[in-house]
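Support reply, case 0932

Customer input (verbatim):
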Amino acid sequence: MPDHALRILHLACHSANIGDNANVMGIQRLLREDLGRDISFTNEDMLEYRGKWGRREYTGEDFIDLVNAHDLLVIGGGGLFSPDRRQPTGCPVGLTVQTLERIEIPVVYYALGFASYPGERVPAETRDAFAAYLPAVVSRDRTLVSVRNDGSRARLAQCFSSEVIAGVETVPDGGFYVPTSEGEHKELPARRPVIAVQLAGDKQRLRFSEPDDPLRRASRVLGLQCDGLHSRKQLRFLRAFTAVIEELFSEAGCSFVFVPHIPADLSIIHRAMAMLPIRISRAHSSVAPVVTGEAAARGKFDFYSKVDLVIGMRFHSNVCSVGLEVPTVGLGTHPQLAGLYGELGIPERCVEVADPHAGSRITKLAREALSSPGIVREEYRRIAQRLRETSRGFHARIARLLEHGRR
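Our regenerated output:
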């Protein structure tokens, strides 16, 4: 093991949204705590590489030299094992086995997610590429491969043989450990209780249709985007959900803060607020700002820590709130959210938006959380302790990996 400060190159999505920021900050926070030495992190943004927004190449000498100037390469977290037809690996991590052979330091794939929307078509060549890539990476010396605790390993088992996924571990997402910074939150009303509402405005065609939807099948066959096909199901959900808001306002005098994580979320927030009575939308609701970056994420999740309940669609609105011991109700529009709550042992706290009884289920869970918040917070505290032990054990394995040094 080197005697200087440990130099870690952290390859992840550092600039996409505050959920990614929370994930990265949580991972780095725990590694500093558990590895028992000074650490210097270099953040390398995957979005700068080909296949994402940028044009840089993983095969370039500048990238290889950058990696080998460090002591450890950490990749992730985030949904970086999900299908990606643009990469030769079949997933967003574009480091081929040939590229990895040029890397001299240990490599850790940290809590990557594997998921696709129900009915989302994955080309056979993409699936085959990933099926070859995963076991090749797992079998490498000085390499650890893990997926996050959102049902990813179970979904891998549904798609690939046991030989393909052997050696893949499950570890907690970094967002459970997001650090926060105390700040002023003008969007936080004085009237209590306060409910944070997180609605996801991207990928509406996939979030609000079922895999056997004939309109979805037709759009896929015809090669059409057909973004309007989702609108009826979205409208049905928003009607039920705004009725929930009206009921909670009437019963408990709640205030509501809508929390966008990316600009696209503003569209569905606007639609939901337009369906609320003016008394609620104008006098008892507000919208938090759209922000990005680590400093902004620290403030955003400080806001989350100060509300009484989070009702959210996005993965990290749920993950970080559970980690902060804030009661939650998950709004399932993607398999990873049900997978998350299932792995945490509280599947009842995730409500699928396609459920015809979604409104009554959300109301029931919200009432329970608002009337007995201590019960939920104590349950989340026990969950957090269990997750922390799992993370600590994984980091002990990283420490042993570092003892062997570079190749």
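We compared this against your earlier run and they match. Two observations from our side: The mean pLDDT is 91. The two ends are 12 Å apart (CA to CA). Please reopen the case if you see a mismatch on your end.
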